[in-house]
Recover the amino acids of this structure.
């Protein structure tokens, strides 16, 4: 089974002023003359991890990783003003221009796959190909699966704990209720709900591998801020018209595309990738029989390295 490439340090690091008080962290790894690839992390509200540099052959790729507005090492952490999907897409274009990239491979997972698809629809002439994991299509049915009628049937105990954390707030508008508490004046309630939200997401994403933190332990500020970003995007339906991601797939010209999806993905069920493959008939769909949602684990890591290697061969 293919393994990650050895750990690598960036050859350049940037903190770009993108406006609105935001400074976006960007790093470049590998070969400055290699194939440009931009890594798009999930969330919204996540951030890049060090191991994600190692998906890319260091001699073949110029790997560009950035933390989206308010995330990771971008500054200030958690800032929601001027933080929308349209801002993130504009940031990608600014990064491309600042780094002197003509075309790049889009490599993203979950929410990162959403951004990749939207960017390719908006800037098709700037994309050489796409490798997408656990594609999230941002449809109402996708939100309903995660927060209404779907994943809650798989983990009813954890779902009940999330609802209990609301302390009687309206469950008919779950996103609105959680968002309201996270921005309310009761700091204990903020941290209680942020923890329950984090536990729910961890359980659904990791399944049997998830180990919850001490329920009485400290809730760090970054957990609260990440929850706020996730709910900010969820409340605004990700700033995307219903079904736009699929509807606008005809705007993407024929190019190399690999769709990697775990059969056991309970955050974004495999139907998403199957439906996306029908909207992009030139894409190659690779379903992993025992993998879940996250970009780690032997099967998924191997598949992502193989996808990057395959793309390097096609784009060289």
């Amino acid at each position: 089974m293919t393994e990650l490439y050895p750990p690598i340090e960036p050859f350049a690091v940037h903190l770009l002023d993108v406006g609105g008080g935001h400074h976006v962290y960007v790093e470049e790894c590998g070969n400055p003359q290699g194939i440009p690839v931009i890594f798009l992390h999930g969330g919204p509200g996540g951030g890049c991890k060090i191991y994600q540099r190692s998906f890319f052959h260091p001699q073949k790729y110029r790997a560009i990783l950035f933390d989206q507005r308010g995330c990771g090492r971008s500054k200030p952490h958690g800032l929601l003003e001027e933080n929308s999907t349209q801002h993130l897409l504009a940031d990608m274009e600014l990064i491309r221009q600042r780094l002197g990239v003509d075309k790049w491979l889009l490599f993203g997972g979950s929410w990162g796959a959403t951004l990749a698809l939207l960017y390719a629809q908006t800037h098709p002439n700037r994309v050489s190909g796409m490798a997408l994991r656990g594609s999230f299509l941002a449809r109402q049915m996708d939100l309903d699966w995660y927060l209404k009628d779907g994943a809650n049937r798989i983990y009813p105990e954890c779902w009940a704990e999330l609802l209990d954390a609301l302390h009687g707030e309206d469950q008919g508008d779950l996103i609105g209720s959680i968002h309201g508490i996270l921005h309310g004046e009761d700091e204990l309630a903020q941290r209680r709900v942020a923890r329950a939200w984090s536990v729910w997401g961890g359980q659904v994403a990791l399944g049997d591998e998830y180990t919850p933190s001490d329920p009485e332990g400290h809730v760090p500020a970054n957990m609260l801020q990440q929850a706020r970003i996730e709910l900010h995007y969820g409340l605004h339906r990700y700033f995307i018209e219903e079904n736009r991601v699929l509807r606008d797939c005809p705007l993407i010209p024929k190019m190399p595309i690999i769709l990697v999806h775990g059969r056991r993905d309970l955050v974004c069920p495999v139907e998403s990738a199957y439906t996306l493959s029908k909207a992009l008939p030139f894409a190659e769909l690779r379903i992993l029989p025992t993998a879940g949602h996250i970009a780690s684990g032997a099967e998924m890591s191997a598949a992502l390295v193989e996808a990057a290697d395959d793309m390097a061969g096609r784009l060289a």
